Amino acid sequence: MTEAGGTGDRAAAVIAALRFDKDGLLPAVAQQHDTGEVLMLAWMNREAVTRTLDTGHVHYWSRARNALWRKGERSGQEQRLVELRVDCDGDTLLLRVEQTGVACHTGQRSCFFRAAHDGALVTIAEPLMSPGELYGESGH
Amino acid sequence: MTEAGGTGDRAAAVIAALRFDKDGLLPAVAQQHDTGEVLMLAWMNREAVTRTLDTGHVHYWSRARNALWRKGERSGQEQRLVELRVDCDGDTLLLRVEQTGVACHTGQRSCFFRAAHDGALVTIAEPLMSPGELYGESGH
Fold this sequence. Notes:
Two copies of one chain form a homodimer. By secondary structure, chain A is mostly beta strands. Chain A has a domain at 9-101: Ubiquitin-like (UB roll). Chain A is 11% helix and 32% strand. Chain A is built from two helices and eight strands; from the N terminus they run αββαββββββ. A four-stranded mixed sheet of chain A has the order 2-1-6-5, with helices on one face. Chain A is globular and about 45 Å long. The first copy, chain A, starts with 11 loop residues before the first helix and ends in a 17-residue tail after the last strand. The model of chain A is unreliable at 1-6 (pLDDT under 50). The interface between A and B is large, with 42 and 42 residues.
């Protein structure tokens, strides 16, 4: 999973502690490091973890596109890694990040912009950008 | 998934917006509502979502035990639901909760008590209780 040239060294000890699922993935929760805001949940494989630790830029695995992606590669809305945390049983990651702009492909700061209130699902925040400004839906 | 006697009404509109995976589950991130601390990630099925909304006490689905559980039913470390949020594509939940005591079966406040620092995985918090005080590992 590591590339030639010594990259991946920083990730080896972390990778060893992780329990990927049968598809080689685990969920990663991205949280803005200073405000505590939960921004999104996406999936990582070994390569995504390795590249994230090596470069400091958060990478995920797209289950829809079956491809590695660097967050913000199309939209510019990057996530710089501040700290990668691992849960008690090694099957979930918490990424403490510095989010550029918005995390959600809808233009919302956070993907969690709807809430259950009195039996209805209501929108609790307004988008900060339009999807068009994010260069299409694949900017997620 | 609802019980007799009218329970489940509060959950119907939320359930309709959710996209459960092929096993009928989706990941739920629990976050302490006032501090922003991410406590844990666990899994919910339709019944767990319904019971959580109906009772105000967070319920999950245990993939290991193949059973519904109410958080804290053995350990006493309950989660009272403050707000249930749904992400943009309806396949992840964010539970804003009031956590009694500790969220993790290890006695740590949060399950995310290890972090990658300079290529090593280090413990960044100390447990607040012993697993024994939590009545065994199944108190998670």
